Amino acid sequence: MIKEMRSYERIEQYDDEVTDILADNYKVIIENLGEDIYREGLEKTPERVAKAMQFLTHGYGLNPLEIMKSALFTEDHKQMIVVKDIEVYSMCEHHMLPFFGKAHVAYIPNGKIVGLSKIPRIVDAFARRMQVQERLTDQIKDCIQAALNPLGVAVVIEAQHMCMQMRGIQKQNSVTTTSSFTGAFEKDKTRKEFISLVSNKLS
After folding, report:
1. In 22-175, where do the E strands start and end?
2. What is the pTM of this model?
3. Residues 133-163 pLDDT 10s
4. DSSP states of 22-64 as a string?
5. Does the annotation mark 133 as catalytic?
6. Active-site residue, from 92, 104, 131, 139
7. Is 40 part of the annotated catalytic residue set?
8. Residue 161 designated active-site
9. Which of 1, 153, 163, 183 has the most Cβ atoms closer than 10 angstroms to its Cβ?
10. Cα 10 vs. chain centroid, distance in angstroms?
């Protein structure tokens, strides 16, 4: 006999007061763009956008350093640890349009390691804010450096920006790469090893 599967329940929590304020503002914006806010397809759009924006910027409610410190372990490992191809979704603070891509993060421990899931979590915590890619890259690096005091940290982000692809210069195939390094990764040999590891597929 096949057991009945539990139905999937999506749980979303939003600040009702913030949702109402944002929805009122989006209603005005939509009307000023020339649309009929009472048209069937748009009646609930202000509330939907208000909730979407809260989700897309929920990083303001997270403390990345505390996330890192919640899973530190003593370990005598002195080789490079790399977490690559971490999906990044963020919001350009200049035009409020998305940018997205991948982050590649590495560090060389100095007596402490961190649970691997925490690195993508801090990437998200910083990315889910109004951002510029350059600052995002530095914030991830600085957080890992502060939490672990490792021998070095490396962060590279490759991203596509909708503010360049949908408007402005409209270059659909452009990719922006930013990098930030500390300690051992400032040495050419170590940096090249990191770049090689994130560029190649390991068999």
Report:
1. 72-74, 81-92, 98-108, 112-114, 130-131, 152-161
2. 0.90
3. 999 999 999 999 999 999 999 999 999 998 8
4. HHHHHHHHHHHTT--TTSGGGTTHHHHHHHHHHHHTGGGG--H
5. yes
6. 92
7. no
8. yes
9. 153
10. 22
